Every structure is written in structure tokens, then in C-alpha cells.
Amino acid sequence: MTYFPEEVLEHVFDFLSSHRDRNAVSQVCKSWFRVERWSRHRVFIGNCYAISPERVIARFPRVRALTLKGKPHFADFSLVPHDWGGFVYPWIVAMAKSYPDLEELRLKRMVVSDESLELLSRSFPNFQSLVLVSCEGFSTDGLASIAANCRVLRELDLQENEVEDRRGHWLGCFPDSCTSLVSLNFACLKGEVNLGALERLVARCPNLRSLRLNRAVPLEALHKILTRAPQLVDIGIGSYVHESNSEAYVKLCNAVLNCKSVQSLSGFLEVAPCCLPAFYPICLNLTSLNLSYAPGIQGNELINLIRHCRKLQRLWILDYIGDKGLEVVASTCKELQELRVFPYDPYGGGNATVTEEGLVAISMGCPKLHSLLYFCRQMTNAALINVAKNCPNFTRFRLCILDPTKPDHVTLQPLDEGFGAIVQSCKGLRRLSLSGLLTDQVFLYIGMYAERLEMLSIAFAGESDKGMLYVLNGCKNLRKLEIRDSPFGDIALLTNVGKYETMRSLWMSSCDVTLGGCKALAKKMPRLNVEIINEKDQMMENSHDDGEKVEKMFVYRTLCGPRRDAPDFVWTL
Amino acid sequence: MGKITNSSSSSIDSSNHPSISSATSSLPQPKRDLSTDLRLGLSISTSQPDDSSSNSREQPSDWPSLKPLLRCTIAEKGNNRQHPTLFVKVYMEGIPIGRKLDLFAHNNYDSLVRTLSQMFRTTILCPDIDEVLSGNDHVLTYEDKEGDWMMVGDVPWEMFLTTVKRLKITRANQC
């Protein structure tokens, strides 16, 4: 047998960046397991309750970058109560003792307290990168500790968090010696910022590449900032309101002309559209444009802006762009890979929105499209079949028809055939969200064809338990299944229980599963946590009978047993 | 770990939302008891069944599937406090009392002309499209920052917005 020195193995393993590859390699033999665990620096944990911090530390002693996810995805739509869980504090406490070299922490849908941020900022001298996505529980005081104490901070990226804004001067807490910032995103903050401190910070960080401002940064400050940082690659505009012939606007135009590296633009949280032409010069090189927070840009200004963006790869917009606007996108943005169209007026009548025609136009004009999120009011099977034919490369396909059980508006048939065409044609599909009128047939297609599917979102769909079973029995790579308001009950839940240990999690709310069914699942599968979430009535254990339907159920595999931090309204069976 | 007061107005605790337990219900919003309305002789809104703008209850925050921050931004669009405005005076020839119009509320010349036509109950013609100018038709002119009176429609809309000071609807045969 050839002797392979461990240093060589470690060097080879360094080339493995994907977690799956590393996981595979660690299972080959004991010595590979040992080398791999000592050399793994980046760990991804998709469910913070699947494992405890102590066990992670025991297995991987030398971690420098950790990604943690907390609440299930449906928490984004207010389906999970705020206090459900996902606290990062215990993780930071444990890591403070064992990971002195921690450099990066990326959290999604977790509860992050100011105390956690303070502890984080003081425990890791080499800490460089903090990314918080859809988190909550902290205030600008927590940000102040990060700013003040992380000496080599390079990245502070706050995406769509709920932050209590104490109007403190957190930006001013970055010491004068801090010159290492590469990325700063505080677009989700609602309060005032110290503009002088911001400008000085930008001026002393020559490596700053990405800067996303919040609403409180007005146009007058923007030109100063852009002048100090012409090397920016990604800009998020805060406020953009004033008269277009004033001096500040002219200065802005000049500052923008100097920003030759900008590839990504977002924000425009308040907009006077007549000032948009200032940005036309950089539109030529834009690869990413996010106008989903800019309801002030409409009609012609929007279309004119898009006409300049020939190199766009990612576009996020509001649906008043209309089908005509999407046709302009289709003819202009030939490099488009990702499109998201959000609803401008979800509860209103039928103002200008997008329909199946816009989607077909995009599919015809943009052959590289592989990721879609599309809110609309109507769809047809014919259109979906057409889209499937034009774009066989979809990896993410999320369609949300605002009236949740609307059929094909021409034939009045369910949309089974349309989605069936999508899963059959798009062999690389990893994520799918369904909507509209759907029977069990669509799930038969999904089970048959969606071999690479990892995440499936179902709402108001299906007719019987068979639907869910087609999916559980068919989709080999399914990791996350989330279902709401669909007629799947105990038979669907209990027929293939082994499947759940191969998945990260299952969410079912407002379905037909009963308490008895959930208890049976918990009993059969001790390595799953079966959580019942019932906010209305906390006396769960006494007053309910097994035949009662469960409002919200969250099932996930875990090595740690029931969690000890569950609030009263969560009952782990 | 203090509880954060949520300043987002559209985010409601999901326990306030009447849960739809039956999968056969086709709408996420609570159904109104129309039979009671009929008996009491109340008029029933003829708007679409999912139009909750006439419903005094808050919009359900779990449908459609939108993240809270985006939901907030879109909800604020109706809030005109922060929306910039550009009000200019508009006079029609022969009528001493003028009107005022917010130019930022329009995206293009068509929209402007349509609104003015309705406001002043007349046909306003676009000079390059409509060839025949008779005495009863009107055209739209504006005073620019230099004090000159110009025909509306020659320059791009955005440029127009930067130079217009006031509008005047004059008889066609004077142009």
C-alpha cells in the first residue's frame, strides 16, 4: 500500500471547496477523515438545530468561517412566530472558547442580540466578515460594537434585517485606524446616519468595492461619496430626490462618470425619476440591477434605463413594468440569467402588471435565463410549455400567481401540464415553487421528472395524500419541502417516514395532518424533531385530542434531540 | 435579547390572521358573510373578491409570499408624503382662473395631455401627429426657464421637466 503523507492529503483537500466534496472525502477511511477534519476551515450548517455547537467544534477544531441558518423559509412570510428560535448566542459563546481564528460568520433567519454582537466583536481578533440576512433581534448598538472592536473588519453586510434603529452614531464608531473595509451594506436600516462619519469612512478605505446606503443618505451626500470612492463595483443608492438642474445633480453626474467599475446598482429608495439620466453612463457595464425597492421609477423612465443595460445578468423589478416592458428586457438584455418580478400592488385590482405573455417573451429573448421569481395574476399551460421549451436550463423556477388557486385563464384547466413541462424539460431544476390551480397530477410529474430537485414550495395545491407521496417517493435529492394550505394528511405524512432523515426539513401548515399523526411520526423516528407550533393555545398537552388538525408542523433531522430553547407555543413531540 | 418593536406597519402577528384550515377554501383572505349583508340590505362591493382595499381589516401578511421589507416598501407607495411633486400653473386661453397640476404624477406627454384634456374638457392636439388645426382645437405650450413660450412635445420628457415653469393651452390657429 502506498504511503501518502498527510501533508499531501491536506494540500489536495485544500482544492476542494464544496462542502459535499469534503463530506464525501471524509468518509473514505479513518486517516482521510482525520486529515479532512483538521483541515476544514469553512463549515455550512443549514439548520442550527440539527447539531450542537459543541459537536461541531469537536469534529472541526480549526474553523475560520461558519454559515448558520435558523428559521425555516416560510418565516419570511410571517408564518413562523418571532420567538420561535434560532438564537446565535450559544454558538458565539462556544466559538469564543474554541475558535480564536474565526474570521467569517454568515447568518440567515437567526435571532441575533446586541449581546451576541458585542461578544463576537471582542472574541475574535482576526474577525473580518459579518453577513446577516433576514435576521432580527439587534439594534444599531450591536453594530456599534462591531464597528468599534473588529480591527480588521472587511465586510459588514446587512441584508433585509429587522434592526432597531437607536439613531446612535454607529458609523462613527469605526476608528480612524479602520481602513480595511471592502463591503458595507446598511440599506435595511431605517434611521439617520452620520453623513460626515460615512464620508470620512469611505475616504479612508481604498479597497471599498461594495457600498449600499440606506434611505437617510441623500443625493447631496452621494456625489461626495462617489467622488471619494470611484473604484466602487456595487452601489446601493439611498435617497435620490431633488431637482435635476441643481448644482448637486451636476456634481453627481460628474462623479458617476468617474465610476468606471460599477457593475451592480440597487436601491433608489426614494426617487425623482428625472434625475436617472445621471446613471445612464454606467448602465452600459451593469450586470446586476435591483429596482424592487424603487416604486418611484415607473413607465418610461424605467424602460429608458433598461434600454441602456445591454450586459445585464441579473434584474429585479416591480411588475408595473408590464408585458411591454418585459419585451424591452427580452430584446435588450441578452445576457440575462436571473429575473425577479415582484408585485407592486398585490391587493389591488388589475393595474398594469405582467402576464404569461411577458414571461414567454423573456424566455424567447433570454436564452441564458436560469433563475426566475415571477409574480403575476394569470398564467396558461401553453405559456409554461413554451417557456419550458425555450429555456431548458432553469435551476430555479418560482411562479407565484396572486390568486392562489387560479386555473389556466384560457382553458380553465389546472396548471398541471404547464409545470409538468417545466420539470420534464429542465433537468437541472433544483428549486421549484408552484401556484395556481393544481391537482395531484402535477406532483406525479414532479416525482417522475424532477430528479435534481432540492427544494419544493407548495401552497393551496393538490387533491389527496397521493400528491405528497409522489414527491416523497420520487424526488431523490429533495432536501426541503414546505407546504401550506394543501389537503395532505396523516397517510401522506406517515407512509415514507425514512425519507425525512434524508432531508433537512419538512414544513406543513394548514394541511390535514393531525396531532395523532405527528405523534406517530415522532415515535417512529427518534432522530427527527417533530415540532408543533400553536400560538393560540399554549396548554397543548392537556386539552387536545389526537384527531385534531395541527396548525403548523416543522419536522427536521437532528443529532441533538429536542431543543431546550423552545418557547411555550412550540411543542416537540 | 430584547424584543424589537416592529415599526413595519404591515407586519402583523400571524395569530391575528384567521387561519384557513380547510384546503377547499380558495382564497387566503377571510370570506365575508354575504348572506348577512344581503339580509341587512347592505350594498355589496362589486370589486373583485380578493380586493381587500374596501376591507377595513389589515391585509394578511402571509399571502402573497413577500418578505416584510419589500411588503413595507410597496405599502408605502400610497403614502404621498415623501413623494416629490412638481406643481405648475395651467391656464386655458380665455379663462381667467387657472389650475395646478403635478407634473411628477405623469410619466410622459400622453399622460399629461390626456389629463389636461379631461381637466379642461377640450381636445388638445399634438402638433406633429395631428395635422389639421382648426379654430376649435387647442395646443399645449409652456414657458421655460428662460421665459420663452414653447410648444410642448419637442424635447424628451425628462428634459421638459427640468425647464418647464408653467403651462398654457392656446387656440390652435395662433401657433
From TrEMBL, chain A:
Localization, UniProt: Nucleus
Entries under SUPFAM superfamilies matching the protein: RNI-like (SSF52047)
A single MF term (Gene Ontology): auxin binding
Matches recorded under SMART domains: FBOX (SM00256), LRR_CC (SM00367)
Signal peptide (UniProt feature, chain positions): none
Gene Ontology biological process terms, A to Z: auxin-activated signaling pathway; pollen maturation; SCF-dependent proteasomal ubiquitin-dependent protein catabolic process
Protein name: Protein AUXIN SIGNALING F-BOX 2-like
Xref: InterPro entries: COI1_F-box, F-box_dom, Leu-rich_rpt_Cys-con_subtyp, LRR_dom_sf, Transp_inhibit
GO CC aspect terms: nucleus; SCF ubiquitin ligase complex
Pathway: Protein modification; protein ubiquitination
Pfam hit, one: Transp_inhibit
Organism encoding this protein: Nelumbo nucifera (Sacred lotus)
Domain F-box per the UniProt entry, residue ranges: 4-45
Key words, A-Z: Auxin signaling pathway, Nucleus, Ubl conjugation pathway
Automatic annotation (TrEMBL), chain B:
Ranges of Low complexity composition bias in the record: 1-22, 43-56
Keywords assigned: Auxin signaling pathway, Nucleus, Repressor, Transcription, Transcription regulation
GO (cellular component) term, any one: nucleus
Subcellular location(s) of the protein: Nucleus
Biological-process GO terms, alphabetical: auxin-activated signaling pathway; regulation of DNA-templated transcription
InterPro entries (UniProt xref): AUX/IAA_dom (IPR033389), AUX_IAA (IPR003311), PB1-like (IPR053793)
Highest taxon, organism lineage: Eukaryota
Known role: Aux/IAA proteins are short-lived transcriptional factors that function as repressors of early auxin response genes at low auxin concentrations.
Oligomeric and partner information: Homodimers and heterodimers.
Name recorded for this polypeptide: Auxin-responsive protein
Source organism: Nelumbo nucifera
Taxonomic lineage of the native organism: Eukaryota, Viridiplantae, Streptophyta, Embryophyta, Tracheophyta
